[in-house]
Automatic annotation (TrEMBL):
Coiled-coil region list: 54-109, 135-292
Keywords: Cell cycle, Cell division, Coiled coil, Mitosis, Nucleus
Recorded GO CC terms: kinetochore; mitotic spindle; nuclear envelope
Name by which UniProt lists this protein: Spindle assembly checkpoint component MAD1
Chief location bin: nucleus
PANTHER family xref list: MITOTIC SPINDLE ASSEMBLY CHECKPOINT PROTEIN MAD1, MITOTIC SPINDLE ASSEMBLY CHECKPOINT PROTEIN MAD1 MITOTIC ARREST DEFICIENT-LIKE PROTEIN 1
Native source organism of the sequence: Ostreococcus lucimarinus (strain CCE9901)
GO biological process entries: attachment of mitotic spindle microtubules to kinetochore; cell division; mitotic spindle assembly checkpoint signaling
Region (Disordered): 1-28, 446-465
Amino acid sequence: MKEADGDGEHDDDDVQGTAGETSDDPMEIVRTDGALVNAYEATNMVKSALVAEFERRGEKLIELEREAHALKQKTKSAESLLAATTAEVESLREMKSDHEKSKVAMREELAEERQANMLALEREVGRACEAESRVKTLAEELSAMKETLAAIERERAEDSAEDDAERYPSDFAEKNAELEYSVACLQDEVSNLKKENVSLQARFQTVEAERVEVTTRAEQAEEALRECESLVAQAEATVLDIRREADDAKLARGADGDEESSKIIEDLRGMNRTLQEELRVATREAAEVKTLRRKAEFAATCEERAMAAESRALRAEASVIDTSSLQARLSKLEYLENDWASVIDRLSPGSVKVPSDLVERVISLETRLTSQTGEQGKMMSDLAQAQMKETAATRRATEAEEKYQKIESSASSAVEALAVAERQIAMMKGQVESLNRIVKSYEDEGNAAAARKSTEKEKSKAASDRAMKELEKLLAHAKERIAVLDGELSEAKTRAETAEAAATAAAAALPVENPVTLARIETLEREREELLERLKRESAQEDDSKALKVLHFKSNPVASAMRSALEKEVESLRSEAAGLREALSKLQQGSVSSASEADMTVMKRKLEDLQKREQRLMTVFKRQISAFREACHKIFGYKIEMNEDAGACTFTLTSDYATNPTDAFAFKYDDKSSTVSLKETPFVAAPEIRRSVETFVTRMRSIPAFIANHTIETFNQRDDDVDVDDDGVDAMDA
């Protein structure tokens, strides 16, 4: 436009010079004959040249306007393509988050399977214990038989008779048969255990090979996931670069720029498709890794079972060896018994004692031996049962404690979810009311614009139509925002109901035997009923707008920010509309440089509005952040200081009740994982603080509970009287 104006000024000079020269020629012609006719013709030529020049400039202005319109269309198309690319990147982020959720679910399933395998292992250990107890019983029986044989030998050394010689060979034969049968059973069991051990070893080797393969594939899957994350980061960086290039070249970009942006967008789409394929492959590999991990855990279980079976086989072999040695000794005893019988036969009747005494003595010894063996076996069985009962009771107590902790944590999370849902409902109600007011203001402005439209002239019709379209777009956007907030409100209600159901289920799943658990259940039920009544009151107040009373902050930062943003947007729209009206009026009046002046006016007003907006935002931010920090200090009793070191934020908390200025906690905040960790300091290393850290942070994993406990302890340890400062606290009776 400036070049056109410069060309126009140069052409005016040329035309004026031509007119001057022409005006000089008629003056010379006037001094000759026919001067009047020549002067009239020269004047007409000058006028026609000026008219042609104005027409040419008008056509050039129209062409420039068309070019500007074409550039705007191209810019809009580039912005739409950029928005599509941004949407694709967001979809990639969602896919990444879904993949992370699936990874978490896989880890949970692996933990559950590991727990199931541990239970199966415990059952196998129990079976092994039973087998060991059975082997011990057999060993005790063998030792009892050995003692019986020794006693019989001693009795025979003291008392020998023919009846005893006739009777005891049959008893020894029966016991020998029983021992042979037990030896055969043990040998069968040993052979079975050896076969099972061989099969388990072969299976273990197979599963070990599968486990190695699983480990390799898991590493490959993790490498693929890292590559996917790097590709997503590259795509995000590319999108940011495209946005910056689009902002820099929005007014000066032509057809070549559009082709380059389309090529970049096509590349990004191809990259997105590649990422999607890689994510699907990674998901399949993760599923295979999960299956192979199960097989590996089963292989480990099989290995343990094989080792247990091998140990049982070794014990059985040892018992077989003992039995064989006992059998050899029994054969020796039989040989000695035959010798004793022959000796008794050769003895004279006078040198032999009374057989009845020997028989009665042997019978009494057998009775006593039988009673002792029965009492010992009963005692061993009672001891084994008591040990098993003790183990089962310990396991049940541990499981009940874990279940109680899980249910308590789920109940606390449900209460927190209900509180969060209530806060979201209140916030959404305020946003809906503010948006309703905004919609009403838009409707009023639209009605006023319609009224002005009926009274304005035809020359402002186009500007009014554009303003109405913009207002309609804003109105539609506000209505869409209201619909989105309504959906979020319904989702918050659904989450509240889900949390309530979870709390109910958690309370129902608590063990009834523990009185502490019963008291905790009653407390949680009372809290749930109170929260349910509050939620019902909130839902009932939604329908009754007259009875609804909403308490707002005196200076709500959210409402003030929304109000200031709306005011700034309205002011910018009004300034732009005023500039467009001025430009339109100047164009209609026929001014040549009106378009450039209108653009300059609009740009100046936009620049002033942006500067004012930045100043207001900085002022509001400083005021709000200082108020927020002071309120946190007054409410929680801790002075908080933030420091940044190598991209990590460190928060130092100093209590108002601290005795020394160095008694402070330092917490490190990780922005990527959204976690807070306590840093090691001399104050934290103190014994009393260390106990609290181990109790609340290490075992319970609750930093808020640790801070609250420290506040109460320091408050109770003060020697002087406490004067409560109510300057920064506002009390309100609801």
